[in-house]
Amino acid sequence: MKNIHFILFLSIGLLLAPSCNSSKQPANTTEQSSTTANASKLLSVAAFAQQLANTPNAVLIDLRTPEEITETGKIENASNLDFNSPNFEAELAKLDKTKPTMVYCARGGRSGKAAQKMLEMGFTNISDLDGGMMAWQGNNMPTNK
Asked: 10 Å Cβ neighbour count for 99?
């Protein structure tokens, strides 16, 4: 009786194993291409700094208010495009959508929303600083006041 249960259990396991394996493969492939084609890159401070240093033609955008920038400074060569401004989308539309674009805000909320909006507008290469200026300064990275 034990042999019958073992054989039955083994048979069911062998029947299910290929179907589980084959169903996972396409899902992973689809997910990877979807992420690559339709997402911005959320980068750590170190990765963001490295990409900024290695991408001389990058457009760097500080999405905070002018008051926030006055208080804490900004990353060198960053342009200010206030996410809360009524003409924010119109100003985004003026940018070259094919250039690498790097965004940050105070903590990462506005930059995540801005990156999503930029994807919808057709930007193709967006990097977002994970943790924003708080993380940048928390890692003792340089700022301009």
From this structure: 14
